[in-house]
Design brief:
heterodimer, A: 282 residues, mainly alpha, 10 helices, globular, B: 321 residues, alpha/beta, eight-stranded mixed sheet, four-stranded antiparallel sheet, 12 strands
Chain lengths: 282, 321
């Protein structure tokens, strides 16, 4: 069973070159996140007053910042935090949103009205501003950044799960499942909910990129993660003030890392769906 | 013959509330099935065959309302029983197979797993034995290489194979009543015959009653002991199969038989039934066939009689043939 799943995963990855690129990037990203501090050539927090604002060289590939800290090390070490924020925020909203949405789609009536209006309310705010508000109100911590990112992503999952579940509520196999004696909750959990997941995986993958940008955006304007913790958004923010004076590398490399990560998540969506949905296994 | 029926539907009336008024889909439908018996319900599309089955299984659309009647199964009225009671019986005592086997199986669950689900729900089978039992069931419905098919997803199987899986699923817990709603529509003729023979054999082996819903008179003739003819939500005639075919009493049944092709019947001899089903909204004549009937007389508008010219042969008509 797992062997077959692995074989299928390999097939999906090799059959589409874009998926291969996406998954290789993901692998690099995850490796950097897992082993970041071990791979970094320098201590990301250690300043070196003799080597401030040095352009990229063989010693410092990404150059150094205004305190002489090695940019390469800072970019590498920042990976873990950014990936963690993106993954936890997306998992949180995926689980909560898809459950609430699926319930709304299946039960209809009051459940649907309450869930839909709540998600409409969230959508009524400019989402980034809402996230700022949540972090500002709850306190400036990584946990709250994750929470805020999850909340602003919630409506998309709710809507999608509701639509998917609604379509499937009437499906023949749902009727058949009821006819073999399954209660409503079991039909929902075993038959309707899993059938809604494949299309939502694509959404989740796209959302990872978006969540990462959102967290970086919050850090950029000074919310959430605080210096000197290395985080791509902060690094870009710190570098931004030096672009005009010619020290472009400080902002460029973390920005590039951020861009590549988002690019990877966006490409990954289709491949991920192909892996999860057995209908694509032929 | 005198044994009490396993399922007895009495005076079942169902209405649908729609935007354009109340549709009287079923009116005073009555019939019974004994243990081990196969009863065919025939009629054209829209005559209420499936609605009858859905009402008995309690899966009617929320817009439907059962206005009167009972469906006594094993001493319990299925129409008024509590939802938990029905859930307990569905799959265990009552099973149903559908028209379209492809959509009736969960597309992203292995077919074997789907059978295991039912077994675990009702079958009194342990988690360890269930997969083996599911393979046995697949073998019983003559699926070749059942161990491998256990892990197949529905889209990997042909329509006929899916229908076999559906049958295995329906019969998993040895139900005493099987409702087969057009089980062979959409399958080719050889597969049709194989599926029907399979249902027949299994029904005989298990003394299972079968309610076969079909618009194919030939199919019903071949497999049923008794046939119930429906028209526009009424049961117009009900008789043992041989009796019905040799001696139809209701004009509609006679026209249906005349419209059924068979060996030695030329195409010209096939006569279409004039007209269509009446609009089931608003006021309806007491005999819903009267507008299409060539034997119509003014007294046909009196409330319908249910005559029994021969014991076991009932006909709802003032001027039977």
């Amino acid at each position: 069973m797992t062997a077959a799943a692995l074989r299928h995963a390999r097939y999906v990855v090799t059959e589409n070159p874009l998926t291969l690129v996406a998954f290789s990037l993901l692998l690099v990203l995850l490796l950097l996140a897992a082993l970041g501090p071990l791979l970094a050539p320098f201590d990301p927090l250690k300043s070196d007053s003799a080597n401030t604002l040095k352009p990229p060289s063989t010693r410092h590939w990404f150059g150094t910042d205004q305190l002489g800290r090695d940019m390469l090390s800072r970019v590498i070490v920042a990976t873990r935090l950014d990936v963690a924020i993106a993954f936890s925020a997306v998992s949180l909203s995926f689980v909560m949103g898809s459950l609430a949405g699926a319930c709304a789609g299946v039960f209809g009536g009051w459940t649907e009205r309450i869930v839909s209006r709540l998600s409409d309310t969230i959508m009524a705010f400019p989402l980034f501003v809402l996230a700022m508000g949540i972090v500002a109100a709850l306190g400036n911590s990584v946990c709250n950044v994750i929470l805020a990112t999850a909340v602003i992503n919630l409506p998309f999952y709710v809507r999608m799960a509701r639509a998917e579940a609604n379509v499937r509520r009437e499906a023949g196999f749902v009727e058949a499942a009821r006819l073999s004696g399954n209660g409503t909750m079991r039909v929902l959990a075993v038959h309707i909910y899993p059938n809604c997941l494949p299309p939502m995986m694509v959404q989740a993958s796209l959302n990872l990129g978006w969540a990462m940008l959102n967290a970086a955006g919050l850090a950029f304007i000074g919310l959430g993660v605080r210096p000197p913790t290395p985080e791509w958004g902060i690094l870009v923010a710190e570098g931004a003030s030096f672009i005009l004076s010619g020290e472009w590398w400080i902002a460029l490399f973390p920005g590039l890392a951020l861009m590549l990560a988002v690019f990877c998540f966006n490409l990954m969506g289709d491949g991920l769906r192909d892996m999860i949905d057995p209908r694509w296994r032929t | 013959m005198a044994a009490a029926p396993l399922l007895s539907v009495e005076n079942l009336s169902v209405e649908f509330r729609t935007r354009d008024g109340v549709v009287k889909a079923l009116e005073r439908v009555s019939f019974g099935i004994r243990r081990g018996e196969t009863v065919g319900v025939v009629g054209e599309s829209g005559s209420g065959k499936s609605v009858t089955a859905f009402a008995v299984m309690r899966i009617l659309d929320p817009a439907a309302r059962i206005t009167c009647g009972r469906a006594i199964f094993d001493g319990v009225d299925l129409l008024t029983a509590r939802e938990e009671e029905i859930e307990e019986r569905r799959g265990r005592d009552l099973a149903m197979i559908f028209q379209n086997p492809r959509t009736a199986l969960n597309p992203i669950r292995q077919v074997g797993r789907q059978i295991v689900d039912v077994l675990l729900r009702h079958g009194g089978v342990g988690r360890r034995e269930a997969p083996g039992r599911a393979v046995q069931l697949l073998a019983q419905v003559q699926i070749p290489d059942p161990e491998r098919r256990y892990h197949a997803y529905p889209f990997e199987l042909s329509g006929g194979m899916c229908q076999r899986v559906m049958i295995a699923l329906a019969l998993a817990c040895g139900p005493s009543l099987l409702v087969a709603d057009e089980p062979t529509t959409g399958l080719d003729v050889t597969t049709q015959a194989a599926i029907m023979d399979l249902i027949d054999d299994l029904a005989r082996a298990r003394q299972m009653a079968t309610l076969l819903i079909t618009h194919d008179l030939g199919l019903a003739a071949e497999h049923c002991e008794r046939i119930v003819v429906m028209h526009a939500g009424h049961v117009v005639e009900s008789a043992p199969t041989g009796e019905l075919f040799s001696n139809p009493r209701h004009p509609y049944t006679a026209r249906l038989l005349a419209a059924t092709p068979g060996p030695g019947v030329s195409l010209e001899a096939l006569a279409a039934i004039p007209g269509g089903l009446p609009d089931l909204r608003g006021a309806l004549p007491s005999c819903r066939y009267s507008k299409r009937c060539e034997r119509y007389a003014p007294f046909c508008d009196e409330p319908l009689p249910m005559a029994e010219p021969v014991p076991g042969h009932t006909v709802a008509c003032w001027k039977p043939l």
